[in-house]
Amino acid sequence: MKMKKVLSLALAAAMALSLAACGNGGGGASSGQPSCGASSSEPSGGASSSTPAPAPTGELITVGVINNDPNESGYRTANDAAMRATFTEENGYKTTFFNNNDAAQQIATAQQMVQDEVDFLLLSPASTTGWDTVLKDAQDAGTQVILFDRMLEADESMYAAAVVSDMPAEGKTAVDWLAAQGLDEYNIIHIQGHMGSDAQLGRTGALDEKVAAEASWNYVAQQTADWDEATARTITQSVIDSGKPFNVIYAENNGMARGAVAALDAAGITHGKGGDVIVMGFDSDKWAFEAVLEGSWNYMGLCNPLQADTVDSIIKDLMAGKAPAQKIIYTPEQGFDCDTLTQADVDTYGT
Amino acid sequence: MTTPVKNPETQVRRPDESLWKRLTRQQLFIPVAALVLLVLFNLIADPTFFTVSVKENSLGNPVLSGNMVSVLDNASELVILAIGMTLVTASSGGQDISVGATMTIAGSVILRLVCGGQAAADTMQMNLFLAVLIGIVVTALFGAFNGTLVAYFNIQPMVATLIMYTAGRSIAAWINNNQLPIINDVAFKYAGTFLPGIPVPTPIFITALMVLVFWLVLKFTNLGLYTQSVGINPNSSRLNGLNPKMIKLLTYVILGVCVAVAGYIRISRSGSINYSRNAENIEMDAILAVALGGNALSGGKFNIYGSILGAYVIQFLTTTLYKYEVPSTALPAYKAVVVILLVVLSAPVVREKLSSMKKAPVKAVKEVS
Amino acid sequence: MREGAVLEMRGICKYFPGVRALQDVDFTLREGEIHALMGENGAGKSTLIKVLTGVYPKDGGEVHIKGIDGAAVIRSPQDAQNAGISTVYQEITLCPNLTVAENMYIGRTKGAGANWKAMNAGAGKILESLGIPASPRQQLGSCSIAVQQMVAIARAVDMECKVLILDEPTSSLDEQEVVKLFGLMRDLKAKGVGIIFVTHFLEQVYEVCDRITVLRDGQLVGEYVIEDLPRVQLVSKMLGKELDDMADIKGETGGQAVSQEGAPVLEAQGLCSSAGIKPFDFSIRKGEVNGFTGLLGSGRSECVRAIFGADHVTAGTVKMDGREARIKKPLDAMRQGIGYLPEDRKGDGIVGDLSVRENIILALQVMKGFFRPFSRAQAEAFADEYIKLLEIKTASADTPIKSLSGGNQQKCILARWLLTDPKYLILDEPTRGIDIGTKIEIQKLVLKLASEGKSVTFISSEIDEMLRTCSRLVVMRDRKAVGELNGEDLTQSKIMATIAGGDEK
Questions:
Q1: Which of A33-42, A172-181, C299-308 is most confident?
Q2: Given an 8 Å threshold on Cβ–Cβ distance, is B63 in contact with A25?
């Protein structure tokens, strides 16, 4: 009995230790990767707030960064990593990070950051609404708000700048590319992202419009896989099992495209360059670029996750008294297809 | 462990009992009835649902394809989890809600090992068997952690496993330094897709193997008797020489092993992982499978075959809903309605009513659909 | 309805799968009488009461209640309560985490609001008038079982019931508490309440009851005025056969003397456990039957639990057959050849949802080991053997044990330990709450085991029973062994005196 009790205690202790180790390990990673506790509700900016490292020049700019869960997708992982790599003490920032996919928690934390009188609040909102109070409080407190990656519903005067991807444009670029392929008939499996998200609305909008307008464009299936690869695979598999003909897979991110391709492979349906089915994905994952390069996929709409540098220069400008030329700054983006993609592009844009 | 079909209650019966009454009292009545209804529905609505054809996959192997193959294939993770969940439920009268998160941990560990820490690997950096074995050990340890909290610290299972439910996905991400590694080695995907030359999806074989293993374990050990005894009355069990805490802990470790196998199947389907979406909400389906199988979620007597059948019913339902292109946003709602019906029907009160409806048995069945 | 009757049940039938629990049973309760409902376990007493209180729907017959025209419709316990029928069960069915007053008023407040002050005052008054030593604001769980039982009665009384059902109310009470309870019952009787009293204690029936209704095998044997039915006849009516009372058992006690010599099977020294007993010495010889006696809470159960390793043993040594034995947990004791039938059959003995067969083989199976399960055929053979040997009444070996009557459940637990072929068998209250027939069978079995060379410790609240079976008694008081009686000293008066501590100091 006693022996077993001791054993079990030791086990529990070991588990607790491994959890603690995880908290430290992530923060100390050289690549500036976020700590594993990043999705938990406590701000994990321990490195900047607790260590009294000397500032390079003058006083540090205090920044609060509110972002989504880095584990959500490869896109988000890259986005979050870039933010963490940019807003460091070496670059003159004292930063608090908060990662959560729950808008309510984001709002509560933002409120707290405004009360703590951060100089800048960098926001990637999980939902487009509900931010009015925060934005107003921020204005009253003299905190400047910069949106990155995602927009929210508010008057332009409520924030200093927004560095975002133009999702409708991404969708339009992709649909235009698809139309240029000149197929007789477009039978599309449309795998959507998380319903209501900026990316889903933009990327779905363009395609919906085209399908409604053109008689030769049809949906074989239009379902959400909620950014999940396994669900995308199941949806595609289900269409294959039902025997309905299709020739396009329009997946709203790379992970879901990958899931769909797994289903195609299992059924022996050819895809990509010269294949029966056109495969389209979005975002910036390096492996997806490589799939396009190999000709296994046809198209990838680049959605640039690296807004950190742009945000950084806007802040520096604002500190110097220069307002940005325009409020909404779109990150440079384009579509790549298997005929034109080069290894150089992969190295430049792949994350 | 009693054999599943010989339900003790049905053996004691009055001679005037109708077949219907005896049938409805069977523990497996609800899952079997649900399965029959789903089959009937699909037969009537579109018989091609059951078409199985041979295709050639991208590697040039002949493979079976069709909805039924998809059901059996996609249910694999759920079936394996349901087995472990049944044991945990029986011994501790509660459920482990962290299985989706720990499946992700298992997947993350295996991927990290086979990728050798690289973001993408074209060949496996470690013997796959060894990597999976390490994955099994890791999740068995997490199972032991959960089990320790439940058995030795007397924490409600749902609360105890809430810790891993919350932290598990972050731990999984940390294991790979927050990268999303990808393995492109064809051999890695054998377990989640097809073995060369074999037309049946490998997960079906793995699941069959797991079911066989548990059938043997239940037959050749006292796992069944002990877990049930501990779940029903821990005091009596202790006075009969059992160690209820050890047995509870054991069931959580066994679930941990099941989790690793399921996690391995899941990641080997694609060779990559998404920490926040991988096997999301699968714990709910696993618990549901246990309930659908006619097992009391408060523990005690169990029928593992009921849970397995329950898992297949859930997958059958999901596949059917996909097949009829239920609007994507409404899919969970449809599933919920069917689930509520099934669970209400398996409630003892309703079953009592059901079995007394021998005059209009046909009507009663129709209500289910 | 008959003149003066408050309750009449006519032709009540109730079936369970495979069992006719009640067949055409009549029962009449008059105003201001205490009416004993007697029968062996499985005779249908509990079923009749559950039908009356709406727990089970009846399959036939009518119930008439004074003040209600036509047949009363009782579909739920709530209906029964509304019709003026209150029940106090053997097992306390109140909420231990609520206060005494809350328990007395729970489910009875009208409307949403609750006036706690008035409730506490009201409860205090009733408790005082009934002489129940509990404060209304006290948590029920902190009261003794006896007081909890009385609170349950107080609750029933306060609901101004016409019919009060007491189902084995005395089985966990000590003698003084029983006297108090009887006082309470007589008061209520004087107020015109009809009381149905279900018990196994014959003495109590003759002390307090006016009439007796006897059931057997789900059928009515008859209703008798107490003066017309001597004890022996009552027993024979319950058993359905002429019984030479307890005489034949007494005749067999000659065997006791044999065991006074020889080496001890078990020897414990300075044994002490976390359950709070004082260190005690104990030994038992081959073929000896000994007993622990004392009032409830005197520590007699804790002693045997320490021997079996059921509680955490903190000090002391145990020798089996002269060799030192480490007994830290029940399995150690089982491996040494000790068996233990616990006091709380439902809580510690049976594994309710498992079948009779699984319950019988459980202990032996555990001893055999995790990786060596008995084959189905072997388990069936074991179960069938003991079902036959102990005459366990069950539909089949596959029936869940919880659906058996108390006495038959106890026989299954006995079978479980007999199957392990123990050298030393501890039986803690094996006869509590079970019928006379089974009681006698168990006593006979104990003597038979002793004659076969097994050692037995037999604990019972009924001193008669102990006298009949034991050759030596350890007397406990205040968690301490205060005396050992044997031979000439084994008389009721001597035991009482030792328990009370009269002749010490």
A1: A172-181
A2: no
Task: Judge if A3-29+37-164+305-331 and A168-303 fold alike in CATH terms.
Answer: yes
- The amino acid sitting at C300 is R
For A68, list phi and psi in degrees, rounded to 5.
-85, 175
Q: How many CB atoms lie within 10 A of CB C501?
A: 13
B270 and A262 within 8 Å at the Cβ level: the answer is: yes
Residue B41: other Cβ atoms inside 10 A:
15
A166-207 tens-digit pLDDT: 889 999 999 999 999 999 999 999 999 888 778 899 999 999
* Rounded Cα–Cα distance for residues C485 and C473 (Å): 5
Q: Considering the domain A168-303 in this protein, what is its CATH number?
A: 3.40.50.2300
Give the CA distances from residue B77 to residues A21, B43, B98, in Å, rounded to whole numbers and listed in that order. 30, 26, 14
Tokens coding C44 = 């249908």
Other CB atoms within 10 Å distance of the CB of residue C183: 13
Enumerate the residues of chain B whose CB falls inside 8 A of the CB of residue C355: 2, 8
How many other β-carbons are positioned within 10 Å of the β-carbon of residue C372?
11
Q: Parallel, antiparallel, or unpaired for β C323-325 and C313-320?
A: antiparallel
Q: HEC states along chain B?
A: CCCCCCCHHHHCCCCCCCHHHHHHHCCCHHHHHHHHHHHHHHHHHCHHHHCCEEEECCCCCEEEECHHHHHHHHCHHHHHHHHHHHHHHHHHCCCCCCHHHHHHHHHHHHHHHHHCCCCEECCCCCCHHHHHHHHHHHHHHHHHHHHHHHHCCCCCHHHHHHHHHHHHHHHHHHHCCCCCCEECCHHHHHHCCCCCCCCCCHHHHHHHHHHHHHHHHHHHCCHHHHHHHHHHCHHHHHHCCCCHHHHHHHHHHHHHHHHHHHHHHHHHCCCECCCCCCCCCHHHHHHHHHHHCCCCCCCCCCCHHHHHHHHHHHHHHHHHHHHCCCCHHHHHHHHHHHHHHHHHHHCHHHHHHHHCCCCCHHHHHHHHC
Q: Give the pLDDT score at A13.
A: 54
What single letter denotes the amino acid at residue A110?
A: A
How near does any CA of chain C get to the CA of B313, in Å? 27
Domain layout of chain A by residue ranges: 3-29+37-164+305-331, 168-303
pLDDT confidence of residue B365: 39
Distance of CA B189 to the CA centre of its chain: 21
Residues of B in contact with A17 (CB under 8 A): none
Q: What is the largest CA-CA distance in chain B?
A: 70
Which residues in B lie closer than 8 A to residue C362 (C-beta atoms)? 225, 229, 240
Sequential DSSP letters for A76-129: HHHHHHHHHHHSSTTTTEEEEEEE-S-HHHHHHHHHHHHHTT-SEEEE--SSSS
- What is the residue whose two structure tokens read 């030596």? C472
* Total residues belonging to chain A: 351
* pTM of the entire predicted model: 0.77
What tokens were used for B358? 């021998």
Architecture of domain A3-29+37-164+305-331: 3-Layer(aba) Sandwich (3.40)
Q: Exposure of B285 by Cβ count < 10 A (0-12 exposed, 13-18 middle, 19+ buried)? A: buried
Q: ipTM strictly over 0.90?
A: no
Burial state string for C22-33 with b = 16 or more CB within 10 A and e = fewer than 16: bbebebbbbbeb
- Residue B227: which residues within 8 A CB-CB, separation 6 or more? B87, B90, B91, B247, B251, B302
- The pair of three-digit structure tokens given for residue B86, joined into one six-digit string: 């049944």
Q: Which residues of B make CB contacts under 8 Å with C?
A: 2-3, 6, 8-9, 11-14, 17, 219-223, 225-226, 228-229, 232-233, 235-243, 300-301
pLDDT of B130 above 60: yes
Substitution target in C15, C16, C59, C366 with the highest count of B β-carbons within 10 Å is: C366
